[in-house]
Amino acid sequence: MSNISVTDLTLRNFRSITDMTWHISDLEPGLIFVSGDNRLEPTLGANGAGKSSIFEGLVWTLYGRTSRNIKTPTLVSWGQSKRSIYGQVRVIKDNISYVITRSPSVLTIEEEGEETGRTVVQSDIDNFLGLTFESFIWLVYIPQFGVRFFDLSPTEKLSLFTSIMEDVVEKWVRYAERAKTRATEIVNHMNDLNQDKQRITGLIQGQDTREQRELSRTFERTREENIEAKERRILHLKDKIELARDRKINIIIPEKKRNDDLYTKTRGKLENLDSIIATDRTQQQEALVAHTRAIANRDSLINNMTEFEAMQDACPTCTRSITGKEKRRILDRMEAEIERARRFVDKMYVPLERANAKLERDAAGALGLRDDVGRLEHDARQIARNLEAENRIIDESSDEIINLKADIKALKSQRNVHKDLIKKSESKTRFLSRYLRTLEAELEENNKELEAVNYWKKGFKDIRIALIERALKELEAYVNNNLSMLGLDNWSVTLSIDSETAKGKVKRELAVMITTTDSDEQRTVPFDVWSGGEGQRLRLAGTLGLIDFIENYNNVAFDIEVYDEPTTWLSNVGISNLLEALAERAEVLNRRILVVDHRDLASMGEFTNTVNVIKDDNGTHIE
User: Fold this and answer.
1) Domain containing 617: what range?
2) pTM of the model
3) Is 110 in the same domain as 31?
4) 316 lies in some domain
5) Does 588 fall in a domain?
6) What is the pLDDT of residues 526-560, one digit of tens each?
7) What is the 3-state secondary structure (H, E, C) of 430-463?
8) What are the contacts of 192-200 at 24+ separation with CB within 8 A?
9) In what order do the strands lie in the sheet with 619-622?
10) Contact between 52 and 17 (Cβ < 8 Å)
11) Residues 217 and 203 in one domain
């Protein structure tokens, strides 16, 4: 049995819990009272302090939902980010420590000694704990508003009961199926034996072995021909592999290396030339700007001269008079400036023309290199296809050789039944008759085995039913044991499967009947008629009995049980009986049993310890 101890619980932004770490292992095993103090709303007393939230946080961390199937988004503390909710549980399983951590997006488990936890899915946690969510709610945390075992419908009780026992009883179903399969195999074998019997009878009637000898020779000749053909095929494939390897090693791989080297060099040249072209464009732009400026200066001088020639004998700006001789001298000077500007324009055109020519040459070179790169890339793809083709030839041929060798081995080991038939024919009627008697004896044995298998096919189903009934009695014993511990000494529970309807049909369901003895008078009634404190005691007995039953059949034991508000509808005497039963259970099992209740139970039971849950401005925490 796997023993699991819950040692630490950390919750952040879970309901009213802002940030809390609880070292559960600090509590000694025994009966522990979990009380509450709502300091934000003192009139509520212990209610609303967040006692249940702590244990719902444990359930959420392990299974991603609460006992009432509330999912993550609605569990985040008010005003906090949905991504901020966080839970961590440390457990010890079979003396090895593990940490299970959950956030809205990540679920991890970390074994002691590991540097980081590994990401898992919920089914991994279920397998690790040995319990599904539903089993955990029945076994470890019995929530305040959860439905008790006895409250389920008869069909639901049977479904839960058989699901717990599934691994134990279903193997008998498999055994019955195997018996059925074996019966089919025996029938088929008996058909084969009857066919052999008819064949041997025919051989007895005619002992001519010439046909069998010819068939034997044909068989051997055909086998040798097949073996030789396959060996020739193997030699051909080996040559094919050798040729493919030769082409691969001596042609394709060197060609690939040459192409890769040339591609690297050509690519380098192209990148270098692209850099040069970028410089050429810059120089071209600079030369174009200089040439354009020279043209603009020349045109400006020409315009000035044209305007000056159009002037009269007086300056239009200062109205000073200008003589014709003076005007001619100015015009000559302006013509000289214009001529110098024209020569400068021609001079600036030379570097522009050179830059254009160099850019054109380098661009043409780059275009050629790009064509070379494209061709080399095309060649590389073709080389890769060629290499893949040769590898495929090698792999396919190697696989075919393996299959051919297996075929040859099978052919060599193939039995020549015709030789056996010849020997049997040579033994004539006596030998064949003996063989015929052997077949008849084997048919008789198979017939006996078929009868036995059909017997066990039904027997395995009967065993399954018997196991369920025995387990039902075991559950019944667990429940009745807890009844006496809860103060119902003269009470007993009877569990039964199958009941007959008014029309005589059998219903598959689990019924709970309660027998009471009062003044030597017994009365047996269904559980449903009980209510109030007595009904609650019966529910608790059923819950405790189911816990023991699940533990036994799941082969897993937790060191903690949590009962949330179990005293509902119980009188003070009923509460005392319950606490005494739980205290004894905690002592016998060396287990921490926590009772969460809004009542002040400290004076009503012998508690080993008390856990005070406080809710104040800092949220819910343990004092």
Assistant:
1) 2-144+556-622
2) 0.53
3) yes
4) yes
5) yes
6) 877 787 777 778 888 888 888 888 777 777 889 99
7) HHHHHHHHHHHHHHHHHHHHHHHHHHHHHHHHHH
8) 193/439, 193/442, 193/443, 193/446, 194/443, 196/439, 197/436, 197/439, 197/440, 197/443, 200/432, 200/435, 200/436, 200/439
9) 141-142, 560-564, 592-596, 30-38, 609-616, 619-622
10) no
11) no
